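@channel anyone free to eyeball this complex?
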Amino acid sequence: DTAVSQTPKYLVTQMGNDKSIKCEQNLGHDTMYWYKQDSKKFLKIMFSYNNKELIINETVPNRFSPKSPDKAHLNLHINSLELGDSAVYFCASSQWYWASGVKETQYFGPGTRLLVL
Amino acid sequence: GQQLNQSPQSMFIQEGEDVSMNCTSSSIFNTWLWYKQDPGEGPVLLIALYKAGELTSNGRLTAQFGITRKDSFLNISASIPSDVGIYFCAGQRTSGSRLTFGEGTQLTVNP
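replying in thread with the prediction:
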């Protein structure tokens, strides 16, 4: 069983298009994240949601809009795609320590490889 | 913003050798995590450290949470070809806060 899953795994699109990436976790976690990994493999947080509420919103263009319909899902919609958006996008999830008393760790999905032409 | 300095950036070793990599920070973290990323996959958690001075093992892997809470290291003993990948350290200040990642250590193991 996949703990954190993302679709699609590969996404090739033209500049200016709008696209969405979906993420689902079956771990029962209450917090989900989106990370961007650039060509140099550097991982950087973009957004974080706890119980469907946005708690981390890094300085990313407002063309990126996350949406969390429920605790198990966090989708990422990108408007007017640009060449510089090409990267690997990772979804992750965790359970907040103070809410559960368990030690918190983040688990990552397999990534979505976005190529903007 | 916060940064983690991870070294070395890359390592080329022979199968059977031991490996050591570390991360340092200018600020304190209360949790240190070590991940491995295989090509085309997402980072997979190897070891999690929650207490200063903690030394934790996972098979051939051993990681320590530095006493100052500003550093951590990961050792791999008797490396094998499947150890190839990128190893990332990550620090977290408080529960639910963002992870700050190191730049990664690319490990190559020659059979």
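from a first look: Helices of chain A lie at 97-100.
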